[in-house]
Design goal:
The chain has 461 residues and is mostly beta strands. It has eight helices and 28 strands. It has two domains: 206 residues, Cathepsin D, subunit A, domain 1; 169 residues, Cathepsin D, subunit A, domain 1, CATH 2.40.70. Strand 6 and strand 7 form a beta hairpin. This is Acid protease.
């Protein structure tokens, strides 16, 4: 393990990736308030037009079902228990073989027309799943580079002719289809920043490709980004918030009718380098259990849905009227400071790390984010057995216990850092950022018809 020391079953907290992410969140969502109000956004192109309504396969067999979850259904969100919807699934279609009346296909057939699977690697630092990245092809002939999969932003960038960049980069002179513009581009991630010029080229994945895909050809990259294994980033939020003002790679695939469905689905592993994936135009039923529970998108900017609050042990809860951005490019969960305070008050023995005085090591971490006026971290007893869940659309969705526990504050401490952090002044007080800490427990479906769905992940089977 990197940067941690094991103490029983709980490692010592590794502050480096969290400190960097805390700083980055403020920059990444600097215009969130305006975007969510429809201010300074680009016109919506609706690339999903003409696609049929997506119906996910039933993971209990080969029957395709579409169950609209409702608050009256019993809670099936516990990652450690099977789901038990109260209503009988409606049979919409059965996948059968020629001359066979019995369904014989479970889930999505491999490489079905209009579907592409992008395998992802999990970048693990200590005991933390920091980010997930996969291969994307650029240019003619194609050059393969790795990109962080980020549903919290909408721009694509890779290094090109970049001095000082430590990871693989795109060699534009080797591509016959590369075109550079004179338009500058710059993206800031807290202490990290990339800058360059907008360019176009063929960008592809599997058998699909987009001609003239716009991306930022990065010429300068801050040194701290060299610590990450991926070369660039693939933004998969709505193109309405793209700094480039251009359609995303996924939107172009839709507009060119290269996909079977106007959805992409995400499976994230837990402390396992391989096995994660993005399914473009498809849903991989081998990665999920139980029905998909849908949440309407509030704004076609971020993948934003209504969050009603949080619960502890299914009996205690804190109410909140929040907009939650579902963000695969963020590791943890971030809440307004008032909501975070109320949530941790439900956990016996918890405390704000700033008030708790958890030692010099954690104090240094907090000092590093003090310029953002954030209360930051909280501690909980390492032996706590509480079940933490988010309340979305009136239903509870549990977080796997080990994902909520970030590790001990110090080698000899009995206090651990909680995986839900607070964002204070300078951050919208009605916005929550829901990252991989939650998504590892829930197979996620991002549907361009305007909804996000969650089915219980096989990680928790």
């Amino acid at each position: 393990m990197t940067g941690t020391q094991a103490i029983g079953n709980v490692t010592v907290f590794n502050p480096a990736p969290v400190t960097r992410e805390l700083n980055a969140i403020f920059y990444k969502y600097a215009k969130a308030q305006q975007f969510l109000q429809g201010i300074d956004v680009h016109p919506e192109t609706h690339p999903e037009a003409g696609y049929p309504q997506f119906v996910p396969p039933d993971t209990s067999g080969a029957l395709l079902t579409n169950i609209q979850a409702s608050p009256s259904q019993p809670d099936s969100s516990d990652p450690d228990s099977p789901s038990a919807p109260s209503s009988t699934p409606k049979l919409l279609h059965a996948l059968t073989g020629p001359g066979d009346d019995t369904p014989n296909i479970i889930g999505m057939p491999p490489m079905a027309p209009g579907t592409i699977q992008m395998p992802l690697k999990d970048y693990i630092s200590g005991a933390m799943d920091v980010l997930y990245y996969g291969p994307l092809n650029f240019g003619s002939p194609p050059q393969s580079l790795t990109v962080d999969i980020d549903t919290g932003s909408a721009d694509l960038w890779v290094p090109e002719g970049c001095q000082g960049c430590g990871n693989d980069q795109f060699f534009s002179k080797q591509s016959s289809t590369f075109r550079r513009s004179t338009t500058r581009c710059a993206i800031t991630y807290g202490s990290g920043k990339v800058s360059g010029t907008l360019a176009t080229d063929i960008v592809g994945l599997g058998t699909a490709s987009v001609s003239g895909q716009t991306f930022c050809a990065v010429r300068k990259e801050s040194s701290d980004l060299n610590d990450e294994p991926n070369s660039g980033l693939l933004g998969m939020a709505f193109g309405s918030i793209a700094q480039s003002g251009k359609a995303t790679f996924f939107e172009n695939l839709l507009a060119q009718k290269q996909l079977a469905q106007s959805v992409f689905s995400v499976h994230l592993t837990r402390t396992r380098e391989t096995g994660s994936q993005v399914c473009f135009g498809c849903y991989d039923a081998t990665k999920a259990m139980g029905p998909v529970r849908w949440n309407s998108v509030i704004s076609r900017t971020y993948w934003s849905i209504a969050m009603d609050g949080l619960s502890v042990n299914k009996t205690l809860s804190v109410s909140a009227n929040l907009t939650a951005a579902i963000d695969t490019g963020t590791t943890l969960i971030y809440l307004p400071s008032g909501v975070a305070d109320d949530f941790y008050a439900l956990i016996p023995g918890s405390a704000s790390a700033m008030q708790y005085g958890a030692g010099k090591r954690l104090t240094r971490i907090l000092d590093s984010v003090a310029n953002n006026n954030t209360t930051g971290f909280y501690t909980v007893p390492c032996d706590t057995t509480v079940t933490v869940a988010l309340i979305l659309n009136g239903e509870t969705f549990s977080i796997y216990p080990s994902d909520f526990n970030l590790g001990r504050t110090d080698v000899d401490s009995n206090d651990c850092v909680g995986g839900i952090l607070a964002l204070g002044n300078g951050f919208p007080q009605n916005l929550a950022i829901i990252g991989d800490e939650f998504l590892k427990s829930w197979y996620s479906v991002f549907d361009y018809s305007g909804r996000v769905g969650f089915a219980r992940s096989i990680n928790n089977g």
